[in-house]
Amino acid sequence: xxxxxxxxxxxxxxxxxxxxxxxxxxxxxxxxxxxxxxxxxxxxxxxxxxxxxxxxxxxxxxxxxxxxx
Length: 69
Fold this sequence. Notes:
The chain has 69 residues and is mostly beta strands. 10% of the residues lie in helices and 33% in strands. The longest helix is centred in the first third of the chain and has 7 residues, at 18-24. The termini are far apart.
């Protein structure tokens, strides 16, 4: 099944949970990623119940702190 991840096409094995998608995509630092699915930011507790479907748009976001002292 084809989805769009961070603006690029990706293939995953059918309709799966967000958690399984992160595993399949071998997502770096999966414990720290924020997932936006079709424009909606998911809560971490939704990763096991939210499903990814054909042509869904997924953004994997990493928030970083820092700046000038």
